[in-house]
Design a protein that fits this description.
about 250 residues, Arc Repressor Mutant, subunit A, Chorismate lyase, 2 domains, six-stranded antiparallel β-sheet, three-stranded antiparallel β-sheet, 11 strands, about 30% helix
Length: about 250
């Protein structure tokens, strides 16, 4: 359908002053701003907007795409579009349990265990964990979600000396962070934070476009002076941020 043809639809009133995609954006923003569509409310899909408003799919797509780029909504591939909340955040220098962070925001945490196995230490991991190449190590990959929206991929390697029963844990019920903090208290941490484009499998798990940068944290922890864990955490850049402060609050 052409732009001219669309102007005969039910939202002709809006087309005289602005392009039709802008009118659709205004229609959605009005409902968000009024509170009719609160945070995490599901936005009508492109097909639903086409049917309800008598517009083309191209117009609906542009409106939703621009609202997402402006931070008003969040689009999750294969799931839908939702009214955005403020970006989730955590303290930059703390080693927090993501389940606790999510629950403190009044939201629901869920974890999907994608991998949990014993492996041989590669040369790269040997350097990171001060272990001999070929020795045994535990490897887990989890996908953490907040209110059913993917928010973190946790790719973790654990020195079996500190957590010999790591592979026996139910990481749907307890996070690796919570378990390891109990059995191997942290004496030292080292962290590197980067902005990286996701690999194809990471983008798929986080339900984001391959071109959306991820916030990546690489963290090593020590317990009792020995290297205990090496973990890589990946967050969608559009849904997460790190915060830090220093000094006293005078």
């Amino acid at each position: 359908m052409t732009q001219a043809a669309e102007k005969s639809g039910p939202y002709e009133w809006a087309c005289n002053a602005a392009p039709l995609y802008a009118a659709v954006k205004h229609y959605i923003r009005e409902r968000i701003d009024s509170g009719a569509w609160p945070a995490n409310h599901r936005i009508p899909s492109e097909n639903e907007l086409v049917s309800e408003l008598g517009i083309s799919r191209m117009t609906a797509n542009r409106a939703l795409r621009e609202l997402a780029s402006e931070g008003a909504i969040v689009r999750v591939q294969g799931v839908g579009s939702f009214v955005a909340t403020h970006k989730a955040s955590s303290a930059l220098f703390d080693v927090r349990n993501i389940a606790d962070e999510i629950r403190e925001r009044g939201h629901e945490h869920a974890a999907q265990v994608l991998l949990l196995q014993e492996e041989a230490v590669s040369p790269d991991l040997a350097d990171a964990l001060d272990l001999a190449v070929g020795s045994r190590i535990f490897h887990s990959i989890l996908l953490h979600s907040e209110n059913d929206v993917p928010i973190q991929i946790e790719d973790r390697f654990v020195n079996p000396v500190f957590a010999p029963h790591y592979l026996d844990q139910d990481f749907h019920a307890i996070t690796p962070n919570a378990y390891l903090t109990e059995v191997a208290p942290i004496s030292r941490t080292e962290q590197v934070v980067e902005a990286l484009l996701p690999q194809a499998w990471q983008a798929k798990l986080l339900a984001i476009p391959k071109a959306e940068p991820c916030l990546a944290i690489q963290r090593r922890t020590w317990s009792g002076g020995q290297s205990a864990t090496f973990v890589r955490l990946f967050y969608p850049g559009s849904r997460y941020r790190l915060e830090a402060s220093s000094g006293s609050s005078a």
